[in-house]
Design a protein that fits this description.
With 183 residues, this protein is an alpha+beta fold. The protein has helices at residues 37-68, 75-88, 92-95, 105-121, and strands at residues 126-138, 141-154, 157-171, 175-182.
Length: 183
């Protein structure tokens, strides 16, 4: 039933629920994140490029290491590499990679003789290593012979001198020259 118009009852303000008793307002929906396919594609491409670069660096390091490692696989190869380092390139640090315990005195004496003769004759000597032969190999020891030819042009005349040499080597996780002597 409705109160008659103009009565006091109709003028009573509506009752309101106090704010502390009200139900919490419904949370606003989270904004929808726009899709970013370009960003995803760029992240995948960057990841793949990073993996390729890392793989390339590893492969490059391994190939460089193999290319620059001294070849000490066979006694005759070691003799040629050692003589090339000492007599031709005159690179003592490279030569030590092929020697047991540092420099080989007899070969160093030959190099000093070559340098002295070059100064004396005012000519550059060409060094050739010839006839490299493994004459004895047993277990971890080997003996190699070689002929070292020194050639120079002095006063327009080609001159040459050969010396036979004997080298004793040991296999210490790769062949190394331990001693040498001119024959």
């Amino acid at each position: 039933m409705q109160p008659p118009a103009g009565s006091q009852v109709s003028r009573v303000p509506a009752q309101r629920t106090p704010p502390e008793q009200m139900a919490p307002p419904a949370p606003a929906p989270l904004p929808v994140r726009p899709k970013r396919p370009l960003r995803t594609v760029l992240m995948v491409v960057a990841g793949v490029l990073a993996l390729l670069c890392t793989g390339g660096a590893v492969v490059g390091f391994v190939l460089y290491d193999r290319a620059t490692a001294p070849d000490r696989s066979a006694p005759d190869v070691v003799v040629v590499n050692y003589l090339q380092a000492v007599l031709v390139a005159r690179d003592d640090s490279r030569a030590t990679l092929f020697a047991c315990d540092g420099p080989v005195p007899a070969v160093d004496a030959l190099r000093a003789e070559i340098v002295s003769r070059e100064r004396e004759l005012n000519a550059s000597m060409a060094i050739n290593i010839e006839g490299v032969t493994v004459i004895e190999k047993s277990g971890k020891d080997a003996v190699v012979t070689a002929v070292i030819r020194r050639s120079a042009v002095v006063d327009g005349v080609q001159q040459s001198l050969t010396d036979p040499w004997r080298f004793e080597l040991e296999d210490r996780n790769g062949w190394l020259i331990c001693s040498a002597q001119r024959l």
